[in-house]
Amino acid sequence: MNQAERIAEMFGNDGMNFILRGEFLSETKTLDEVCMEFGANKDRGRVGYDENGLMRHDFDPEGDMVRYSFKDGSAIVISGDVWYIEGDAPFTWESNQ
Protein backbone atom coordinates (compact mmCIF):
# COMPACT_ATOMS: atom_id res chain seq x y z
CA MET A 1 0.00 0.00 0.00
CA ASN A 2 1.48 3.38 -0.98
CA GLN A 3 1.37 6.59 1.07
CA ALA A 4 -1.63 8.07 -0.77
CA GLU A 5 -3.60 4.85 -0.30
CA ARG A 6 -2.76 4.79 3.43
CA ILE A 7 -4.00 8.34 3.89
CA ALA A 8 -7.12 7.68 1.80
CA GLU A 9 -7.87 4.70 4.03
CA MET A 10 -7.40 6.83 7.17
CA PHE A 11 -10.06 9.20 5.82
CA GLY A 12 -12.44 6.35 5.00
CA ASN A 13 -11.73 6.58 1.25
CA ASP A 14 -14.25 9.42 1.30
CA GLY A 15 -13.05 12.18 -1.03
CA MET A 16 -15.35 14.67 0.66
CA ASN A 17 -13.97 14.02 4.16
CA PHE A 18 -11.19 16.47 5.05
CA ILE A 19 -11.22 15.93 8.85
CA LEU A 20 -9.70 12.92 10.61
CA ARG A 21 -11.40 12.02 13.85
CA GLY A 22 -10.85 8.93 15.91
CA GLU A 23 -11.38 7.59 19.36
CA PHE A 24 -7.60 7.43 19.94
CA LEU A 25 -6.81 10.93 18.66
CA SER A 26 -6.51 13.67 21.23
CA GLU A 27 -7.38 16.22 18.55
CA THR A 28 -8.78 16.27 15.04
CA LYS A 29 -6.45 16.59 12.07
CA THR A 30 -7.07 17.91 8.58
CA LEU A 31 -6.11 16.19 5.35
CA ASP A 32 -3.45 18.87 4.88
CA GLU A 33 -1.95 18.18 8.32
CA VAL A 34 -1.86 14.43 7.79
CA CYS A 35 -0.31 14.75 4.31
CA MET A 36 2.37 17.07 5.67
CA GLU A 37 3.09 14.64 8.53
CA PHE A 38 3.66 11.94 5.89
CA GLY A 39 6.33 14.21 4.33
CA ALA A 40 4.36 15.42 1.30
CA ASN A 41 5.41 18.15 -1.07
CA LYS A 42 2.52 20.53 -1.61
CA ASP A 43 2.05 22.10 -5.05
CA ARG A 44 -0.66 24.11 -6.72
CA GLY A 45 -1.71 23.71 -10.30
CA ARG A 46 -4.46 23.65 -12.83
CA VAL A 47 -5.70 21.52 -15.65
CA GLY A 48 -6.32 23.20 -18.96
CA TYR A 49 -6.43 22.50 -22.67
CA ASP A 50 -3.94 23.46 -25.35
CA GLU A 51 -4.76 24.87 -28.78
CA ASN A 52 -5.33 21.33 -30.09
CA GLY A 53 -7.87 20.53 -27.39
CA LEU A 54 -5.50 18.21 -25.55
CA MET A 55 -5.52 18.25 -21.76
CA ARG A 56 -2.57 20.00 -20.18
CA HIS A 57 -1.45 19.79 -16.53
CA ASP A 58 0.41 22.83 -15.26
CA PHE A 59 2.09 23.63 -11.96
CA ASP A 60 0.79 27.08 -11.05
CA PRO A 61 1.38 28.75 -7.66
CA GLU A 62 -2.03 30.39 -7.97
CA GLY A 63 -3.81 27.35 -9.43
CA ASP A 64 -7.11 26.12 -8.06
CA MET A 65 -5.92 22.53 -7.45
CA VAL A 66 -3.64 21.19 -4.71
CA ARG A 67 -1.34 18.19 -5.13
CA TYR A 68 0.32 16.37 -2.22
CA SER A 69 3.12 14.21 -3.62
CA PHE A 70 4.93 11.61 -1.52
CA LYS A 71 8.42 10.12 -1.71
CA ASP A 72 7.04 6.80 -2.95
CA GLY A 73 5.66 8.47 -6.10
CA SER A 74 2.02 8.47 -5.03
CA ALA A 75 -0.04 11.63 -4.63
CA ILE A 76 -3.39 13.02 -3.51
CA VAL A 77 -5.08 15.76 -5.52
CA ILE A 78 -7.68 18.23 -4.28
CA SER A 79 -10.01 20.01 -6.68
CA GLY A 80 -12.66 22.20 -5.13
CA ASP A 81 -14.32 20.39 -2.25
CA VAL A 82 -13.19 16.89 -3.27
CA TRP A 83 -9.90 14.94 -3.11
CA TYR A 84 -8.75 11.64 -4.58
CA ILE A 85 -5.64 9.58 -5.30
CA GLU A 86 -3.77 10.94 -8.31
CA GLY A 87 -4.12 9.33 -11.73
CA ASP A 88 -1.44 8.82 -14.40
CA ALA A 89 -0.65 12.52 -14.81
CA PRO A 90 -0.18 15.33 -12.29
CA PHE A 91 -3.39 16.99 -11.12
CA THR A 92 -5.64 14.17 -12.36
CA TRP A 93 -7.66 11.68 -10.37
CA GLU A 94 -7.25 7.92 -10.44
CA SER A 95 -10.97 7.54 -11.16
CA ASN A 96 -10.67 9.72 -14.28
CA GLN A 97 -8.24 7.44 -16.14
Quick summary:
The protein is of the alpha+beta class and 97 residues long. Helix content is 15%, strand content 33%.
Keywords:
elongated; 15% helix; 97 residues; 5-stranded antiparallel β-sheet; two-stranded antiparallel ribbon
Describe the structure.
By secondary structure, this protein is of the alpha+beta class. It has one domain. The protein has 2 helices and 7 strands. The protein has helices spanning 3-10, 31-37, and strands spanning 19-20, 29-30, 41-49, 55-59, 65-69, 75-79, 82-85. The strands form 2 sheets. The chain has a 5-stranded antiparallel beta sheet with strand order 4-3-5-6-7, with helices on one face. It has a two-stranded antiparallel sheet with strand order 1-2. β3 and β4 (55-59) form a beta hairpin. The protein is elongated, with a radius of gyration of 14 Å. The chain starts with a helix and ends in a 12-residue tail after the last strand. The model has no long low-confidence stretch (mean pLDDT 90).
Write the layout of secondary structure elements.
Blueprint: H1 3-10, E1 19-20, E2 29-30, H2 31-37, E3 41-49, E4 55-59, E5 65-69, E6 75-79, E7 82-85
Antiparallel strand pairs: 1-2, 3-4, 3-5, 5-6, 6-7
Number of helices: 2
What kind of sheet is the major sheet?
A: 5 strands, antiparallel
- Assembly type of the shown chains? single chain
What do the pLDDT scores average to? 90
Contiguous low-pLDDT stretches (5 residues minimum) are: none
| Helix/strand order, N-terminal first | HEEHEEEEE
Physical arrangement of strands within the biggest beta sheet = 4-3-5-6-7
Alpha-beta content class: alpha+beta
Rg from C-alpha positions? 14 Å
Please estimate the helix content.
10-25%
Structural shape: elongated
| Proportion of beta-strand residues | 25-35%
- The number of E-state strands comes to 7
